[in-house]
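Hi R.,

Here's the chain you asked about this morning:
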Amino acid sequence: MRDEQQLARVFVELADTLVADFDVIGFLHLLTERCVSLLEVDSAGILLTDQQGRLRLVAASSEQTRLLELLQLQSDQGPCLDCFTTGQPVGSSELSADIQRWPVFTAAARRAGFVAVQALPMRLRDNIIGTLNLFSANSGTLAADITALGQAFADVATIGILSERAAREKHLLSQQLQIALNTRVIIEQAKGTLAERRGLSMDQAFSTLRDYARSHNRKLADVALAVIDNDPQVTLNSPIHNAR
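And the predicted structure, written out as tokens:
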């Protein structure tokens, strides 16, 4: 029977992602190591989606597993890819029986010393972000309690990763919003400055800034800042004349 305190410590490790220096790669490597030590498997790997929704190898407990996971992605076949596509666990208790299903993967896995595999989805409701893949050197189906524990690890890790992603995206969105607000202040200042210097309306001043930025392939905020700083390299005579 597994040490309940040890299991509790592992779940705390997997849940502790919302920290300032959270390292997702280190976190996922830790997950593969804990799978090997606690789930009676010989190796583990993790495939995770990138920002474009494509699967990428992010962690493996051994070099053999790393190469095997990469082979699945390159050959576009294997239990891990099927698991990601369906969102359901996919396993093989004896890979030699599945050689027609995954010929390239099966041959490579057996060369690496693995004869059984269990792929578990990393998903939260309809959001599938990857797979946790368990490799065994012995044939046979993983016991139900081991499979359930592996899925629990995957579920906790998924929640942690999605929470970290949400926090990061929220922070990025906040930064982008602040940049937009700061930029708007600069543009408003430049409009007032230009209107006062050239006797323009605020609408004419903005059109002048915008037209100059477009015709010179520059950002509107950069042109506005140049106007505020009275940069001699930014000459707005022609656009002003047109604006009038």
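The longest strand covers residues 127-136.

Let me know if you need anything else.
M.
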